[in-house]
Amino acid sequence: MIWGRFVLTAGLQCCRCRVSCHVRRHYRILPDDVKSLRAVVNPDVSKIRNIGIMAHIDAGKTTTTERMLYYSGYTRALGDVDDGDTVTDFMAQERERGITIQAAAVTFEWKTHRINLIDTPGHVDFTLEVERALRVLDGAVAVFDASAGVEAQTLTVWRQAEKHHVPCVCFLNKMDKPAASLSFSIESIKKKLKANPVLLQIPVGSGKDFSGVVDLLTNQKLIWKHKTMRDEEDGRTFEITPLDESEEPELLQEVSEARTALIEQVADLDDEFADLLLTDFGENFDEVPSIKLQEAVRRVTLARKGVPVLCGSSLRNKGVQPLLDAITAYLPAPNERHHDLVRWYNDDLCALAFKVVHDKQRGPLVFLRIYSGTLKPQSAVHNINRNSVERVSRLMVPFADQNVEIPSMTAGNIALTVGLKQTVTGDTIVSSKSSAAAAAARRAHSDSGTGAKRGEHDSVVLSGVEVPEPVFFCTIEPPTMAKQADLENALNNLQREDPSLKVRVDPDSGQTILCGMGELHIEIIHDRIRREYGIETHLGPLQVAYRESILHEVSTTETLDRTIGERRHVVTVELAVTPLDSSSCEFAFTEELGAKLSAEIKEAVENGVQSAYLQGPLLGYPLQGVSALIQSVHSEPGTSPAMVSACVSRCVHKALRLAGGQVLEPVMSLEVTVEEERLSSVLGDLAQRRGTVRDIQSRHDDKVLLATVPLAEMMGYSTTLRTVTSGNATFTLELDTYEAMNPQDQNSLLKRVSGLL
Question: What PROSITE patterns does this protein map onto (predicted)?
Answer without folding.
Answer: G_TR_1, G_TR_2
